[in-house]
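To illustrate the input format used throughout this study, we show a single complete record. The first block contains the structure-token representation of the backbone; no residue identities are included at this stage. The design step must infer an amino acid for every position from geometry alone.
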């Protein structure tokens, strides 16, 4: 809890924290909270970890603002998906693919695998 308090220091609420972390307007941050219920209940620690992870992977604030649903996922899941896709030569240019349901993601991954096998033939 102490780490969360330090992250929120200087921020009145999670919307203010998101606004500062993503360098966006408070209205944009509030919009994220309204559109993505899982983000409303996420801790500042979890949100910060995901934002920093995505930045480290080369994604930008615009990517996150375009697909804020990614903030509701675990870093482990997103990291695993980026790794799986990369191992098949696919680099996502959007976060949308990383937010697919398990069934949709697995079907997408299967198509990529088939495409990479066909290219090897």
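Output of the design step:
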């Amino acid at each position: 809890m102490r780490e969360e308090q330090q992250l929120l220091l200087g921020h009145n609420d999670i919307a203010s924290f998101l606004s500062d972390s993503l360098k966006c307007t408070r209205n944009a941050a509030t919009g994220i909270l309204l559109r993505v219920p899982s983000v409303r209940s996420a801790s500042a620690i979890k949100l910060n970890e995901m934002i920093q992870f995505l930045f480290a992977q080369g994604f930008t604030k615009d990517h996150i603002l375009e697909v804020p649903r990614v903030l509701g996922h675990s870093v482990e899941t997103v990291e695993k998906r980026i790794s799986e896709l990369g191992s098949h030569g696919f680099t996502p240019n959007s976060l949308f693919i990383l937010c697919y349901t398990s069934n949709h993601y697995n079907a997408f991954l299967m198509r990529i695998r088939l495409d990479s096998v066909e290219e090897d033939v």
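Structural context for interpreting the output: The helical segments are 2-8, 14-22, 26-35, 37-40, 44-56, 61-66, 75-87, 102-120. The mean pLDDT is 90.
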